[in-house]
């Protein structure tokens, strides 16, 4: 990513194109793929702090490590979107269609879905609070949009990848989008496995009540606090 940015920006600031111009779209596309893979890899290392506690002498170190990786994966998320935006001008030339009327339908629809996904992503960040960027062992289960779907951040980001492919009229963007789809399945299972260790009673009930993909029917829960649940049982 560090080497890709100056090379791609060179394309815009150097009118003489002393580097062969055909190389820039390839560099840009490679950076999209690299950022997609690295952001996924780094994020994976931040979602299993409970499972990783046994690997450290002090359990708090596992949470510090998760926070470190979570903060760093954001850099590559931003990098991926940065290069996707540049793909508007640095496209490799492979297109879904060149039919103008078809594009007049596809692009507005994809853009609308992309905006909707962005809104869902923003709401999910608000609902998750600081946990989105800094995992904390004192954090309880979330409310808000998480009452309607279990992984709103992952789903909205995944949708944005597919939308970007159609907005840019570039089937090559489907390659990292397919990768992100497979990763979403893997990451969701891995994260939920760790959450079951963290909230063995509450998260099991949550899984049974709230779907991964929303069906427009929310589950209104009162409280998933472990201490509250145990207190009610004792009474």
TrEMBL record:
InterPro entries: UstE-like (IPR010721). Keywords: Membrane, Transmembrane, Transmembrane helix. The chain crosses the membrane at residues 26-44, 74-93, 105-126, 159-179. This is Protein-S-isoprenylcysteine O-methyltransferase. It comes from Anaeramoeba flamelloides.
């Amino acid at each position: 990513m560090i080497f890709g940015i100056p090379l791609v920006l060179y394309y815009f600031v150097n009118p003489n194109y002393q580097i062969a111009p055909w190389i820039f779209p390839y560099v840009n596309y490679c950076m999209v793929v690299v950022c997609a893979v690295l952001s996924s890899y780094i994020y994976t290392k931040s979602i299993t702090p409970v499972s990783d506690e046994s690997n450290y002498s002090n359990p708090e170190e596992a949470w510090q490590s998760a926070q470190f990786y979570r903060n760093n994966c954001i850099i590559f998320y931003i990098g991926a979107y940065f290069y996707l935006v540049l793909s508007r001008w640095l496209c490799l030339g492979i297109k879904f269609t060149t039919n103008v009327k078809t594009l007049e339908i596809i692009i507005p629809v994809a853009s609308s879905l992309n905006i909707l996904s962005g809104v869902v992503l923003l709401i999910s960040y608000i609902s998750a609070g600081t946990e989105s960027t800094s995992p904390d062992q004192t954090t309880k289960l979330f409310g808000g949009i998480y009452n309607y779907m279990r992984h709103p951040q992952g789903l909205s980001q995944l949708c944005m990848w597919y939308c970007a492919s159609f907005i840019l009229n570039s089937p090559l963007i489907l390659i990292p989008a397919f990768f992100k789809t497979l990763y979403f399945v893997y990451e969701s299972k891995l994260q939920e496995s760790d959450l079951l260790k963290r909230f063995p009673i509450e998260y099991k009930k949550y899984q049974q009540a709230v779907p991964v993909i929303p069906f427009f029917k929310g589950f209104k829960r009162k409280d998933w606090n472990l201490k509250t649940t145990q207190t009610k049982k004792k009474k």
